[in-house]
Amino acid sequence: MNADFRKSGFDKLITAHLGHRGLIAQYSYSDVLKSLFFMFSIGGDVLDDLNTLREQMKDHPSLKICSPDTVEYVCEKLKQATTMITTAKGTEHYINEHNNFNKLLPALCLQGGILDKEQSYTLDYDGHIVENTKTDNASTYKKTQGYYPVILSINKLPVYIQNRKGNTPENYNQLELIKQSLDRCKELDITVKKFRADACCYEKDTIVYLEQNEVTYYIRAEMNASLRIALEDEREWKTVMLGYRKVEVCSIEEPLFGDTQYRRIVAYRYKAEGQLSLTDINGYRYYAVVTNDSADALSCIEFYNQRGCDGEHHFKELDYDFGWNKLPFDNFEMNTIYLYATAIAYLLFNIFKHHYAAKTTIVKTSMRLKNFILHFVTLTAKWIKTGRRYILKIFTTKDYSSLWTP
Q1: What's the number of domains the chain is made of?
Q2: Which terminus of the chain has fewer CB atoms gathered within 10 Å of its CB, N or C?
Q3: What is the dihedral of CA 221, 222, 223, 228, to 10 degrees?
Q4: pLDDT (tens digit, 9 = 90+) per residue, 118-163?
Q5: Per-residue pLDDT for 8 more than 60?
Q6: 169 lies in a domain?
Q7: Is residue 403 part of a domain?
Q8: 343 and 366 Cβ atoms separated by less than 8 Å
Q9: What's CA 288's distance to the chain center, in Å?
Q10: How do beta strands 138-139 and 145-147 pair?
């Protein structure tokens, strides 16, 4: 993996975006990010596990693993000032991001081959609560304490991250984040044809912007009074199977946001069981999606529902496989850099996983990190120096030979 990392040119790409460290620095930014990736690749989950990896790799002839202190120095060096915005109601929003990391994320996906200029993609927008006990956290809408970063992703691959404290909702300033993400994708010739989001992006300015840029959108509609009445009055409901549930679907045209322009709403309903809520009408529970897609209602709803797998499941991997649920610093700005660094490790994992899956049956593209470690990483090996060169001797019944072929 270390040799493939060098051959890929990722070190040059990282340096091009993050710059050089001081002349006396023993480790480059690339070395630090690679060290974190390798730490997670042996099952580590906290920063101190770098010491374990350093001990295991001490006889490696070329691989340099940095210490946890070096990661702390790097996060301190790269951290950016937090922007604090006070609303008219006196609410304080704390925003932190790193522009060069946000440029690096899609560039790494492209250079690593997990995104392709010849394909078109769907951009997913979502927020994710990172619960923690840091002194600079804030209360979330779930009554927990933590941060609330917003992630824009393609195929579960983060291409834009902005960290916020827990009291800042995911819909805050969301149009600007969408613009920056789409602009960066255009710069890299990454074609984004579709956009999905929950009700946090149910705003007129966002929908108008997506329409102007010819992006097909699927956004969860807020169930307000006028929409509830329109759905209640609709008579052309069609019974279909949505997954394993029998539901009724329809498609209507409604003026939204107090505008005269009509937009398409695709909706489904089913008989509610148990205690009814205020939004349940005549015993039915309704869900609606605003879209400019002309496909049939069921196809649009199914595509929107896929965001649960394509747009959210990577949060579990970031939390439990790549350390988002165990942030190391008691500092909002430094933890933001750590979120970026571990997101880079997650992208590298996906890059190498797809690369090796194309060469050997040992690796599957569907593997989670734990499975990857068990079936691919874990084996007995020893470095042997002979004839003034190092040879890696491995002891296993698995066939790794295909990985050494061009």
Answers
A1: 2
A2: C
A3: -50
A4: 999 999 999 999 999 999 999 999 999 999 999 999 999 999 999 9
A5: yes
A6: yes
A7: no
A8: no
A9: 25
A10: antiparallel
